């Protein structure tokens, strides 16, 4: 019945330390050996997710920057959608980010992660991959080849940024939260759900045979596209309210995805997490 497993990372497949645990690794490797196709769909950068993929030890499709990039299992890029350079240059201005300077601005290029200041606390999210940022003057960046703009800050500050984006750009951008302190901006036709459909078409598999897992607002259309969506018990309350009919499973910090996959596929070789 199920042929494809699509999953978010942070708050979903990864544990509370933003890493993969041995129980999850054993589960996904066993399922891939049975012929299941995996799709990792995340807001993270490709270079970061490639490192996590290597820890998992599987060969998934990688949907990164919320769908602005898609890479095949062999590493070939099969889809890319950038923000317009002029838009990128505007998105890093204080009229958008806030004159107070509290919001950290980031740009995701094909291979690089550019940031406007040193923020070592962000590196804890990238322990498995070792992916790191480069501090640059974002106001001097030409805005070319940027898949995503990421704002990191307190929820109240990000709400103000979101309002600024709505006022200036309206529906000409895709703006979403990946976590309460992460506001992400992509081109308007980018989303995890659209990227999932690209991969399903490439595989020749119907969405009805796809299982998907997510926990936050950038997972909405991933869950709406998959035939069998599941939401984490630790999901954002706004996501729960938006998709009340989607079944909820365990918590990410208790390997909820791996446990649920073992139930779905009747895996009896249970291992201790």
Automatic annotation (TrEMBL):
Keywords: Hydrolase, Magnesium, Metal-binding. This is Cof subfamily protein (Haloacid dehalogenase superfamily)/HAD superfamily hydrolase (TIGR01484 family). Belongs to the HAD-like hydrolase superfamily. Cof family. It holds the Pfam family Hydrolase_3. Signal peptide: none annotated. It comes from the Bacteria. The keyword Methyltransferase does not apply. GO terms for molecular function: metal ion binding; phosphatase activity. CDD domains: HAD_Pase.
